[in-house]
Amino acid sequence: MGTPGRNLNNMRISQLFGKRLREIPAEADTDSHRLLLRAGMISQLAAGVYSYMPLALRSLRKIENIVRDEMNKTGAQEVLMPTLQPIELWQKSGRDLAMGQTLFHLADRKDRNLVLGPTHEEVVTDLAGRNVQSYRDLPFTLYQIQTKMRDEPRPRGGLIRVREFTMKDAYSFDADEAGLDVTYKKMVQAYKNIYRRCGLPAMIIEADSGAIGGKDSQEFMAVTDIGEDEIIICDACGLGANVEKAVSVKAGAENGPPMDIEEIETPGKESIDDLAVFLKVKTAQTLKAVFYTADGDLIFTVIRGDLEVNEIKLKKVLHAVDLRLATDQEVKAKGIVPGSASPVGMLGVRVIADISVTSGTNFVAGANKQGRHLKNVNYPRDFKTEIVADISKAKAGDACAVCGSALRTVRGMEIGHVFKLGTSISDKLGACFVDENGASHPIIMGCYGIGIGRLMAAVIELNHDDKGIIWPPAIAPYQVYLCPLYMDNAEVVKQADGLYETLTGMGIEVLYDDRAESPGVKFNDADLLGIPVRITVSPRSLEKGSVEVKLRSEKKPELVALGDAIGRVKTLLG
RNA sequence: CGGGGUGUAGCGCAGUUGGCAGCGCGUCUGGUUUGGGACCAGAAGGUCGGAGGUUCGAAUCCUCUCACCCCGACCA
């Protein structure tokens, strides 16, 4: 006899690689992380770098196959592109700078500089460019399911933010905007199908497209308190947007006739709160200065005292690659008095004002003199700006820009992102096609990503109880947890073995708890692993010619005659 | 990169004033058990993250360093 082979549809727990943990691993503090570790599904090698053990891999493969199926249905074609990419490609697109330290760099033996792909817009655009000449070659969509490498500043939450991860990324290539719109809609529908099939409620929101650029951009979010993103929601009109992008109407400032500007003493009042209390005005009646350094330039932003600068919006308005808060030294070097800075009379500095300065009058602002402020400052009478734009953060309680109802916020985890990329990359990489008239144009692109591992973590985050995971059947590692009690009872073993054979023969995936453990241990492991259906075979139920069948999501088992057990399981699994 | 924290057995942790390296869980052996993480007896398991220093003597004190976790920055 050689080594016993294995049916891919079944597994005996005694053979399964990966120990379940009774105690909660100390390093985990999100539910999905704790459960993935306790279930013996993942194992950490370094910060944000994990091995996926057999149970996890089975779920991941199922998710991948759902994704693959939905992609194929849209007509997209699967490819596989390299992880190892020449840096020149990134220099051409300009995104080596935009990605910054997130790019993993390495050199080969000939000292050529390479990066490990954090995403594949560059490679796929190069690939498309080599294979497209005419509008007749368009449109098409390519996708892959592949490993991405990103040197994240802070990996966290188990599989929620990691440095090496599997992503499905798709890229569409169209000849015109109308074509892109059609493709984009198909992708959005495919994404909805994917989340539904994975048993994960996903919310679609408006998003910023980030370093990648482009026009329309939407994110698919799983709503959970541990999410890294803040989502602004309008219950009245159904609008949802990432706070990075969200627009809102901020009431609160007075709107009386402009009065004469007046300089006043405000000794030691350097913060907006102190100033407002001292002058007995609302913070919404003050203007504050926030200083940034954008690609080396000092930027003076003016915004109502009660609002916060949205740095994503500011970055976009400025077309900046690198934006950070300015240091005190940088501010003082321009002759500005921190704590009493004023846009009034400000020269030689780029002044960017939030739109909020235009919707109120008679603000309190700095005098640019130590210990002094100005009353009744009005725009544009008293100060000039380079740009007036919406650069403030939306927050709960603001009015919806569409319907005026009050907005609220929830936290969400990004589980998918689609956007209309346009021609920003195809232009730079020279991926062009010739139209009917013989004119050359850059190909119009869209891109569409789903993190597979993060999706699995999100499913667990939203589908568990205090005992363990509750897998949606479509992505559960196995469908049935076969749980005989008292393995020293010959009849129990005989019936359980029989069920194991039969279920396996029918193509139902069975995890067989063949250990001589006590009932408590087995039930707890069954709950922890979260397999949808548990069949308990015991002397007690066999006496009645029955076994117990229980859904993981239900509290109570039902007694089912032995002969009906298989049928009942099939029904429960739909 | 800034702030906070943790590194001691596979996991969770204790270790006082510097004086024999500990506990619980798990593991192994034998026995008794068995419907929600059983019990008894016995056993194995440690470069105390690493390097250097102080000291008769360091898990403990000092210096440096590494790793991991959390908050922030950042995040296609």
Condensed summary:
This protein has 574 residues and is of the alpha+beta class.
Biggest β-sheet strands, sense, barrel: 9 strands, mixed
Number of helices: 15
Principal-axes geometry comes out as globular
Distance between the termini: 39 Å
Tell how many strands the DSSP assignment holds: 32
**Low-confidence spans: pLDDT under 50, at least 5 residues?**
none
State the share of residues found in helices, binned by percent: 25-40%
What is the CATH T-level topology of the largest domain? Answer: BirA Bifunctional Protein, domain 2
- Class of the largest domain in CATH? Alpha Beta
Sheet-strand content, in percent, reads 25-35%
Q: Classify the secondary structure makeup into a structural class.
A: alpha+beta
Overall mean pLDDT:
91
Number of domains: 3
At the fourth CATH level, what is the homologous superfamily of the largest domain? Bira Bifunctional Protein, Domain 2
Radius of gyration computed on alpha carbons: 30 Å
The CATH architecture assignment of the largest domain turns out to be: 2-Layer Sandwich
List the helices and strands and how they pair.
Elements: E1 10-12, H1 31-38, E2 42-46, E3 49-52, H2 54-73, E4 77-78, E5 84-86, H3 87-93, H4 95-99, E6 104-107, E7 113-116, H5 121-131, E8 140-149, E9 164-174, H6 177-197, E10 203-206, E11 217-223, E12 229-233, E13 240-242, E14 248-249, E15 262-265, H7 272-279, E16 287-294, E17 297-304, H8 311-318, E18 323-325, H9 328-332, E19 350-354, E20 363-369, E21 372-377, E22 387-389, E23 399-400, E24 408-422, H10 424-429, E25 432-434, E26 440-442, E27 444-451, H11 452-462, E28 480-484, H12 490-505, E29 510-512, H13 519-529, E30 533-537, H14 539-542, E31 546-551, E32 558-561, H15 565-572
Parallel strand pairs: 1-29, 4-8, 17-19, 19-22, 28-29, 28-30
Antiparallel strand pairs: 2-3, 5-7, 6-7, 8-9, 9-27, 10-11, 11-24, 12-13, 12-24, 14-23, 15-21, 16-17, 16-18, 20-21, 24-27, 25-26, 30-31, 31-32
The structure holds one RNA strand of 76 nucleotides.
